[in-house]
Write a structure and sequence with these properties.
With about 325 residues, the protein is α/β, with parallel strands linked by helices. Helices cover about 40% and strands about 15% of the residues. It contains eleven helices and 13 strands. It has helices spanning about 15-25, 60-65, 80-85, 90-110, 145-160, 190-195, 215-230, 230-235, 250-260, 285-290, 300-315; strands at about 5-10, 30-35, 50-55, 70-75, 115-120, 165-170, 175, 205, 210, 215, 240, 250, 270. Helix 1 (about 15-25) links the parallel strand 1 (about 5-10) and strand 2 (about 30-35). Helix 1 (about 15-25) packs across helix 7 (about 215-230) and helix 2 (about 60-65) packs across helix 4. The radius of gyration is 19 Å and the shape is globular. It starts with a strand and ends with a helix. The model has no long low-confidence stretch (mean pLDDT about 95).
């Protein structure tokens, strides 16, 4: 009998990629999403194969209803974006912290086998030490980062107090197909690609030499599934970096996009943004040792696949 998975935020970028992978394995999938940032079209090819519940993480009863009968919860639902959290810290707090608490309580009471939560590399803050290792002191610099650290701490507490098997995954700059370039808070890679395709100058905040451990979405999907299957003694109550273990500057990304398009992409430089970190690079040895995680798609190949996706959808 196939396992039943609840994917919160399953109409979003990472969530919908997880849904697609689960379906290819023959699993039973239920999606819970309020479509505030997720899009129904991300699930359009699979709507006949999944159970879709439109609901809000802040609605405790709705979350309980969605969780009932599920074996695993992959909690991707959240309001992303550091700038959004700075503009509206209250809503970020309500969705990301209270929403996670609602999801954890529902999972505990439904007897869920394992609860895997999306966290973020932003919890590390702007410490100059590289690479980022899970044992480092967390210094979150934005309301969003604080909300993700709270997500991790609630997961650990529910494991310690209630015995719920929880895992938090610290995503490092995930990118790939289905990432929305039109959002006010769009991530840098889809924004750069779509601007360059239109012949417009991408905006770079700062000098462009700030670096990130850009991670293709297939690697994040793999980490979620491995987290569900790994021995509980290796993963329960723990948190793990999800990345490639390599860093690239924004200028590197622009050059890669330009090479793929056969033209030079010259950015417009604007002031650095509040709350942004300068450099980010993950140590991924913990997740490799605990789960057998491998980098399935390195950054350059992921960028090529992402370019192909946007060229196809923007024809």
């Amino acid at each position: 009998m196939p396992s039943r998975y609840l994917v919160t935020g399953g109409a979003g970028f990472i969530g919908s990629n997880i849904v697609e992978k689960l379906l290819t394995r023959g699993d039973s999938v239920r999606v819970f999403d309020n479509l505030s940032t997720g899009k129904r079209e991300n699930l359009a090819p699979f709507l006949n194969d999944i159970e879709f519940i439109e609901g809000d993480l802040r609605d405790e009863a709705a979350v309980r209803n969605a969780t009932a009968g599920c074996d695993y919860v992959l909690h991707q639902g959240a309001l992303g974006s550091v700038p959004r959290s700075i503009a509206d810290p209250v809503t970020t707090n309500e969705v990301n912290i209270r929403g996670t608490l609602n999801a954890l309580m529902a999972a505990r009471d439904a007897g869920v086998k394992r609860f895997v939560a999306a966290s973020s590399s932003s919890v590390y803050g702007n410490t100059p030490t590289l690479p980022k290792v899970e044992s480092m002191t967390m210094l979150p610099r934005s309301p969003y980062a604080v909300s993700k650290l709270a997500t991790e701490k609630y997961c650990q507490a529910f494991h310690a107090v209630y015995g719920l098997e929880t895992i938090a995954l610290r995503y490092f700059n995930i990118f790939g197909p289905k990432q929305d370039p039109a959002s006010q808070y769009a991530a840098v890679i889809p924004l750069f690609i779509t601007k360059a395709m239109r012949g417009e100058a991408p905006v770079v905040h700062g000098d462009g030499l700030q670096s990130r451990d850009f991670t293709f979405v297939e690697n994040a999907v793999s980490a979620n599934l491995l987290a569900c299957d790994a021995p509980s003694s290796n993963v329960a109550g723990e948190f793990f970096n999800v990345a490639c273990g390599a860093r690239y500057s924004l200028i590197d990304i622009l050059n890669g996009i330009g090479d793929a398009l056969g033209k030079t992409v010259t950015p417009v430089h604007e002031p650095a943004r509040a709350g942004d970190v300068r450099d980010s690079l993950a140590d991924i040895s913990k997740i490799q040792d605990a789960m057998g995680y491998k980098v399935l798609v390195p950054m350059q190949e992921g960028l090529r696949r992402t370019m192909d996706y946007y060229l196809k959808v923007n024809k």
